[in-house]
Specification:
The complex is a heterodimer of chains A (about 120) and B (about 110). Chain A is mainly beta and about 120 residues long. Chain A contains no helices and eleven strands. Chain A has strands at about 5, 10-15, 20-25, 30-35, 45-50, 55, 60-65, 70-75, 85-90, 105, 110-115. In chain A, the strands form two sheets. In chain A, strands 2, 4, 5, 9, 10 and 11 form a six-stranded mixed β-sheet that branches. In chain A, strands 1-3-8-7-6 form a five-stranded antiparallel β-sheet, with no helix packed on it. In chain A, a hairpin with a 4-residue loop joins strand 7 and strand 8 (about 70-75). The model of chain A has no long low-confidence stretch (mean pLDDT about 90). Chain B has about 110 residues and is mostly beta strands. Chain B has no helices and eleven strands. The termini of chain B are far apart. The model of chain B has no long low-confidence stretch (mean pLDDT about 95). Classes of the chains: A mainly beta (about 120), B mainly beta (about 110). The interface of A and B includes residues 42, 89 and 106 of A.
């Protein structure tokens, strides 16, 4: 039931790009992305709803392919401040008759990103 | 101040004791959540609530009890703490959409 994230860890140099993937075995209503720095609470980055939209946040953007039940987070021209652990959270689609979603958000195991100077 | 607060920030207890972790939000968000975070497991959902008096199990509910008599409070109780419940616990609230996390409670069960 937990979404699968890949890769588990990434090491980059400043200015390089990275892609983090999130894959689900069940139909999705929404996908959330959060970043967590060591010793802190997760911080919201963006949410993508059923419909395949792509969103952006500074140099971080994401896509949602509902047919493949996958989402990808794109980090371009990475900065030192991008270091941290990235989590995708998935909310499952339960059908139109039940309003489509439950509000129940399940997170993947996380992807650790380290950006070096 | 508006926001979501967890207490205590740190807690040490002994095996078999009952422990309650508090979570309070001032936004009147409908949804509230409890997650535990352990190395290698990410954030795992314990319980969540869609509104006052409505709660539901998450991925790892065994050994935990929740209640939500008021919209703003969502306490998590460990009825008889075990060492495997040593973890960092995060409470979160949501108006339906993005989650707002509290600062976390670091719980150690000896």
């Amino acid at each position: 039931q937990q979404p699968v994230q890949s890769p588990q860890a990434v090491i980059l140099r400043e200015g390089e790009d990275a892609v983090i993937n999130c894959s689900s075995s069940k139909a999705l209503y929404s996908v959330h992305w959060y970043r967590q720095k060591h010793g802190e609470a997760p911080v919201f980055l963006m949410i993508l709803l059923k419909g395949g939209e792509q969103k952006g946040h500074e140099k971080i953007s994401a896509s949602f392919n509902e047919k493949k039940q996958q989402s990808s987070l794109y980090l371009t021209a990475s900065q030192l401040s991008y270091s941290g652990t990235y989590f995708c959270g998935t909310e499952y689609w339960i059908g139109v008759n039940r309003s489509g979603n439950t509000g129940k958000l399940i997170f993947g195991q996380g992807t650790t990103l380290q950006v070096k100077p | 101040d508006a926001g979501i607060t967890q207490s205590p920030r740190y807690k040490i207890t002994e095996t078999g004791r009952q422990v309650t972790l508090m979570c309070h939000q001032t936004w009147s968000h409908s949804y509230m959540f409890w997650y535990r975070q352990d190395l290698g497991h990410g954030l795992r959902l314990i319980y969540y609530s869609a509104a006052a008096d409505i709660t539901d199990k998450g991925e790892v509910p065994d050994g935990y009890v929740v209640s939500r008599s008021k919209t703003e409070n969502f306490p998590l109780t460990l009825e008889s703490a075990t060492r495997s419940q040593t973890s960092v616990y995060f409470c979160a609230s949501s108006p339906a959409g993005r989650l707002f996390f509290g600062s976390g409670t670091q719980l150690s069960v000896l």
